[in-house]
Structures are given as C-alpha cells and as structure tokens.
Write a structure and sequence with these properties.
Layout: H1 2-8, H2 17-22, H3 28-42, H4 55-65, E1 69-72, E2 77-80, H5 88-112, E3 116-125, E4 134-141, E5 149-154, H6 164-178, E6 182-188, H7 192-200, E7 206-209, H8 211-223, H9 228-234, H10 238-252, H11 256-270
Parallel strand pairs: 3-6, 6-7
Antiparallel strand pairs: 1-2, 3-4, 4-5
Helix pairs in contact: 8-10, 10-11
This protein binds zinc ion.
Length: about 290
C-alpha cells in the first residue's frame, strides 16, 4: 500500500518550512527510504526468506520455507536435522571450494607448462619458535606471480615442528614436478635443511637466496654488535647497508663475482673512499 502511494504521488517541491509541514509524511528523506523499500520488495531474494538473525523472532516464516530446520537450544541458531538436507559446510561449501581450486590450479599449471620456472618459496607457521602446529609452504612463479602449489603440514607428520618447513618444501616441489613443469631456479631463505635438500635432492636446479631475507638477516647481525658504543656508530648506516644489498643484487645481474665485489665496496664507501682497486668494480655507483 505504501508502495502504490509513492508511485502515484508527484514528488513534492519542498521550498519552505511550511512546505515541509504540509508534506511532512513525504519529505525527501522518506521518499528515498520508501523507494528503497520498494526496491527491496521487488527483489526476488526476499521471497526465499533468508536465515533470520534472531531465529526465535521469525522462525515460523523461516521454517515454513525451510522444512527440516529446527531451532537449536541454547544457542538459538537454526540447525538442519533432516537427513535429506545436506550439511552446508561438509557437503556443499568444501566440495565447491575444492572443485574450484582444482580447476584454477589446472589452468595455472597449463599456463606454466613448457617454461623454465623461477620459483620463490617460503614457509609460514601458525606461531613462531618451536611450538608451531601447522606450517604452510608456498611456491610462487616469479615471472607471473601465480602460485602453482602450496602444502599444509601438521606437526604430527614430523618428529619436530622445525622440520615442517622442509616437508612442505619437498612436498610442493614434488607436486610441481609431478605436473610436468620445469623448475630452473628455486629462491628461498637460508633455511639450513632446505639448503641441504637443494644440494642433494635437487642439484639439477639453481638455488638462490632471497634478497629480502638476506637484508633482514644482515640488519639483525648489525643490531647485535657489542659494545653499544660501537653499535651507535654503525646504526645510522643500517638503512643504507640494507639498500646496498638490493643494489648489489640488481647490479650483479646473476654474476656472483660482481655481486661480491659490489658488496665489499660498501666498506670503502663508508670510509669515504669511492674509487678502489678491483677486478670488476673499481668505483662507487653514485656521482663523485
Ligand atoms: Zn661511494
């Protein structure tokens, strides 16, 4: 009834307080509100009677359109008890997510097929230290940014929580290779077990260290300098030193000798010497 009224009445031109008084039941605000109400009424979803927030208040309507639903006490939430009605999470949501994930993964693997991949991998645990229960290991293709595989490892699968990362790494890399993808380079942090696995089980692939992890590790080492007086002298250089690692990596362009010389030039620069003897690098990169 309200809806019909809004449709037939012309929109009032409200100019003065008097006008507001005459049309106080149809102010601009209420017109907008009523139009919104009409939009809601026309929306087909309304007829499906979605699950109420407070089931005890309108449960008859919800139950009428959702047979088999009962109100679970004391939580007061609707619960499906009929054997004909499937479990929303177990029978509908999880299989749908699983199906979509598998479909998407197949597309990604197809895209990466035939390429020499440069994979970046890292593990993430649910808590730091030695008390973690779960660890996810993820590989990302550096050229496209897509994730061809990831693994979830539970601590019960290993003898200790610090082995979870290695298991996740091996599992995911094996899965990627089983999908017939060619891995040329693997980039990780300096995890000791993974370094060993790369040297023994994956010696056919190039292993590189991630610059971000290296930079973080060097910063940590500098902050551990003792005595404190010495640290205070070095501290202002920390951001520049960390930037220099990124610079070295970019300048070297895969040449490990150039990388090392550029890194060593840091000490000369700090002691105000900007040209120095070297095989490849003989001066700083900045303007002199
Ligand atoms: Zn310099």
């Amino acid at each position: 009834m309200v809806d019909v009224g809004v449709q037939t009445l012309p929109q009032p031109q409200l100019q003065t307080d008097t006008d507001f008084g005459q049309h106080n039941h149809l102010t601009q605000h209420s017109l907008v509100r009523l139009r919104k109400t009409r939009m809601h009424l026309m929306h087909p979803r309304l007829h499906q009677h979605p699950a109420p927030r407070n089931p005890t208040a309108i449960s008859p309507m919800y139950q009428a359109t959702n047979p088999g639903t009962q109100i679970s006490h004391p939580l007061q939430t609707p619960r499906n008890t009929s054997p004909q009605n499937p479990s929303l999470q177990k029978d509908i949501a999880i299989p749908a997510i699983d199906r979509y994930y598998t479909m998407q993964r197949d597309v990604i693997l197809q895209q990466l097929h035939g390429k020499q991949l440069i994979l970046g991998g890292d593990g993430r645990c649910d808590s730091p230290g030695f008390s973690a229960k779960y660890c996810t290991y993820t590989f990302m293709d550096s050229a496209t940014g897509v994730i061809p595989d990831f693994s979830l490892v539970q601590v019960s699968e290993t003898t200790s929580s610090n082995k979870m990362e290695l298991i996740g790494f091996q599992r995911s890399l094996a899965s990627i290779e089983a999908a017939d993808l060619t891995v040329g380079v693997v980039v990780t942090d300096r995890h000791v077990q993974i370094r060993k696995a790369m040297a023994t089980d994956h010696s056919d692939k190039k292993h590189q260290f991630d610059v971000w992890h290296l930079s973080k590790s060097i910063k940590k080492k500098i902050l551990a300098i003792k005595p404190k007086k010495l640290l205070n002298e070095v501290k202002p250089w920390i951001p520049s030193i960390c930037n220099h690692i990124w610079y070295c990596s970019r300048q070297a362009d895969g040449d490990s000798d150039k990388l090392e010389e550029t890194w060593r030039s840091l000490l000369c620069h700090i002691s105000n010497r900007h040209t120095f003897p070297g095989k490849i690098v003989t001066q700083c990169g900045h303007f002199h």
